[in-house]
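Q: Please design a sequence for this.
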C-alpha cells in the first residue's frame, strides 16, 4: 500500500465531507477497525513503517476533528440565521372577558353606598320562613308565603324572595347605628316575560340611627339614583304597602330614557317605578330586640337588572340571563 497516497485520499475525503453524517462515514472508512490503515498498523513489522503509519493516523484524526468543528459551527450558523425570532410579528390574540352588565351596575351601587359610609353585605340565598317572612312581619295569609309564588326547599327553607331578610340578620348581629346595603340574587316563581325572570338581583339598604326621617331616606335615594342615572335625576314617592315598613313608599325616578319627555319605557308619564322603601316598622325593631322608642330607621329595596336596563337602555330583562356573548361583549 502507498501510505502517502492513502493519506492524500483520506484528507481529500475529510475535506469534502459536507455534513457530520458524511464525516462519520469517512472516519469509519479511513480510521475504523477495518480500515486499510488500521489493518496495515496491525500487520506492521518494522519500527519505521510503524512510525510513519501512526503519524498518518494522527494527521487524519486531527483533520477529522477540525472538519467536525467546522461542520458543527456551520450547522449552528444555519440554525441561527434560519430560526430567527421576529419580535415585531403580532402576538397571539388574547380574548379578554368583560364584566357582566349586572356586575357593572352592582359595582356602581356598591361604590355609591361605600361613599356614604355604608357597609356592603353579601348574604345567604337559602333562607328560612322565619327570616324571609315572619321577622319581616308578613301576615300569616300573605300570598308570598305560598308555593305558587316562592321556591320552597322544604316546609321551613326557601330561596329568598327579596334581599330584605338581610335587614334582620344585620340588626340581630349589630347594635345601632347601622348603615348597610346587601346585594344579591332573589328568586320568585314567575313566568319568564320581557320584564320578569324567576331569578334576579336586588339591593337592599338599611339605616338605623336616632332621629332618622323620611327626608334622610329621600336624600339617600336621590344620591344613589343620581349616581346611577345622572345628576339631573329627580325622585318622588307614592304611598304603598309593605309589611315591614310604616309608612311604606314606592320611589319613582324621573325617566332617564326620555328625560321626562314621555316614552314607552315610562309609559309617557315621565316617571319610572323603582323598588320599594319606607320607615322601618316598630314591630320589626321589636322582633330583633331594638327599642323602637329610641331608634328609627329607613329601608329600601330595588332590582339591579332594572337599574342596569335603565342605565343602558335595554328594554328586557331576559338578555341579562341568556348570556349571549354578542350582547355581553358590548359592555
Ligand atoms: N322587598 C321589597 C320587594 O322585593 C322591596 C322593599 C320594599 C324593600 C320596602 C325594602 C322596603 O327594604 O323598605 O318588593
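A: Design:
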Amino acid at each position: 500500500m502507498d501510505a502517502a497516497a492513502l493519506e492524500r485520499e483520506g484528507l481529500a475525503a475529510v475535506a469534502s465531507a459536507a455534513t457530520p453524517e458524511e464525516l462519520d462515514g469517512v472516519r469509519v472508512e479511513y480510521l475504523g477497525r477495518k480500515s486499510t490503515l488500521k489493518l496495515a498498523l496491525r500487520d506492521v513489522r518494522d519500527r519505521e513503517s510503524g512510525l510513519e503509519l501512526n503519524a498518518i493516523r494522527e494527521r487524519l484524526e486531527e483533520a477529522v476533528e477540525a472538519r467536525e468543528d467546522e461542520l458543527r459551527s456551520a450547522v449552528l450558523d444555519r440554525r441561527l440565521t434560519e430560526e430567527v425570532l421576529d419580535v415585531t410579528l403580532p402576538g397571539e390574540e388574547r380574548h379578554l372577558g368583560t364584566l357582566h352588565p349586572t356586575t357593572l351596575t352592582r359595582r356602581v351601587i356598591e361604590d355609591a353606598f361605600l361613599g356614604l359610609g355604608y357597609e356592603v353585605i353579601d348574604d345567604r340565598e337559602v333562607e328560612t320562613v322565619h327570616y324571609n317572612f315572619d321577622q319581616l312581619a308578613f301576615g300569616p295569609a300573605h300570598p308570598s308565603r305560598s308555593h305558587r309564588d316562592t321556591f320552597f326547599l322544604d316546609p321551613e327553607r326557601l330561596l329568598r324572595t327579596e334581599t330584605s331578610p338581610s335587614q334582620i340578620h344585620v340588626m340581630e348581629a349589630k347594635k345601632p347605628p347601622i348603615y348597610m346595603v346587601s346585594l344579591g340574587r332573589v328568586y320568585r316563581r314567575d313566568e319568564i316575560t320581557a320584564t320578569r325572570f324567576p331569578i334576579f338581583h336586588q339591593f337592599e339598604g338599611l339605616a338605623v340611627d336616632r332621629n332618622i326621617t323620611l327626608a334622610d331616606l329621600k336624600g339617600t335615594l336621590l344620591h344613589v339614583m343620581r349616581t346611577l342615572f345622572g345628576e339631573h335625576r329627580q325622585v318622588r314617592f307614592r304611598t304603598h304597602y309593605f309589611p315591614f315598613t310604616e309608612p311604606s313608599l314606592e320611589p319613582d325616578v324621573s325617566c332617564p330614557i326620555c328625560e321626562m319627555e314621555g316614552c314607552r319605557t315610562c309609559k309617557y308619564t315621565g316617571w319610572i317605578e323603582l323598588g320599594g322603601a319606607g320607615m322601618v316598622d316598630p314591630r320589626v325593631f321589636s322582633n330583633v330586640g331594638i327599642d323602637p322608642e329610641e331608634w328609627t330607621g329607613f329601608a329600601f329595596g330595588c332590582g339591579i337588572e332594572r337599574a342596569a336596563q335603565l342605565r343602558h337602555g335595554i328594554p328586557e330583562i331576559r338578555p341579562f340571563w341568556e348570556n349571549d356573548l354578542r350582547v355581553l361583549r358590548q359592555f
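Q: Thanks. Anything notable?
A: The chain has a mean pLDDT of 94. The chain is about 40% helix and 20% strand.
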